[in-house]
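A.,

Following up on our hallway conversation. Structure tokens first:
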């Protein structure tokens, strides 16, 4: 996993090339990205990364959501190609003759695209787990959006950002934070504009570190979840992702919340978003989260790669 984190920036160019010729012509009302787990992360991130002229929806379930139609661009992502929820979404899209593009490393999804003679992007299966292939998946989706004229040269912007990413520069900080989190329950908060990052940090703690973790965002959490501090029980450690461009009132909310949490005996760490652009800040923060969850896993004597409980659960299904 350590090498996968260090190689992360290389994924963007490969994912972009994989989707180079994949497109549909037409005027779309929305984009629907179907996927679960690590395969859903591109949709989660895109909503926060860029402003796009039409809505992007991420759907994590069986079949298609109500907002999918003949005017939708539907992208079905299953890293393995065998995710049953995503396969059901793809089959429904095909049966309704919607514009659907598959993104995978192969599997049953590839078989279905060949059977129906529909477009598919194949990315490498060399990053151990879907959650480690975000660079492949995000860059491929962005290239598809460029090709379909939904975005304008966004793939070039992403490739420029990839050149600035230095994963190794966050390792020491991630190790320090990871070791602080031993025997703690991580709770990751951010502003509304970075809620996708907070969510992915939480997921990495779950899958890499094998611990329960939670996420939320300001100012929403000040109107509900914060009340849980009243009878706080358990060793909670709050991680607050903070950016200089957050709304001034949101920054004040973060500081006040931190004071309240500390008064209740919880630990709090602020993580400053680092980078020149929003996209750069997002991926830098994600790499920081990778290192943190990696070193927390090692502190527990866990291999951060496998997710045995998920595989067992699938067999039981």
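Then the amino acids I'd put at each of the 317 positions:
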């Amino acid at each position: 996993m350590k090498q996968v984190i260090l190689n992360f920036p290389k994924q963007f160019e490969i994912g972009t090339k994989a989707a180079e010729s994949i497109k549909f012509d037409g005027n779309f009302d929305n984009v629907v990205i179907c996927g679960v787990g690590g395969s859903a992360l591109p949709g989660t991130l895109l909503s926060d990364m860029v402003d796009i002229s039409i809505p992007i929806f991420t759907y994590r379930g069986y079949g298609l959501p109500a907002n999918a139609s003949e005017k939708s661009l539907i992208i079905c992502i299953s890293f393995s190609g065998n995710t049953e929820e995503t396969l059901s979404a793809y089959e429904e899209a095909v049966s309704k003759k919607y514009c659907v593009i598959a993104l995978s490393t192969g599997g049953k999804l590839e078989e279905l695209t060949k059977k129906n003679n529909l477009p598919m992007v194949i990315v490498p299966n060399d990053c151990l787990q879907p959650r480690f292939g975000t660079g492949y998946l995000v860059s491929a989706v962005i290239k598809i959006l460029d090709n379909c004229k939904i975005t304008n040269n966004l793939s070039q912007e992403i490739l420029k950002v990839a050149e600035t990413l230095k994963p190794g520069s966050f390792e020491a900080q991630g190790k320090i934070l990871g070791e602080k989190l031993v025997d703690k329950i991580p709770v990751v908060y951010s502003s509304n504009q970075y809620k996708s990052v907070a969510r992915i940090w939480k997921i990495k703690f779950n899958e890499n570190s094998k611990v329960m973790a939670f996420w939320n965002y300001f100012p929403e959490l000040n109107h509900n979840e914060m009340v849980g501090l009243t009878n706080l029980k358990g060793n909670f450690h709050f991680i607050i992702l903070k950016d200089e461009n957050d709304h001034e009132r949101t920054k004040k909310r973060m500081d006040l919340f931190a004071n309240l949490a500390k008064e209740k005996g919880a630990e709090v760490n602020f993580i400053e978003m680092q980078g020149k652009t929003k996209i750069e800040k997002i991926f830098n923060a994600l790499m920081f989260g990778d290192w943190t969850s990696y070193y927390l896993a090692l502190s527990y004597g866990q291999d951060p790669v496998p997710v045995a409980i998920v595989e067992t659960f699938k067999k039981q299904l």
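Strands lie at 30-34, 56-59, 72-78, 99-104, 120-122, 185-191, 214-218, 236-242, 267-272. Curious whether your intuition agrees with the design.

B.
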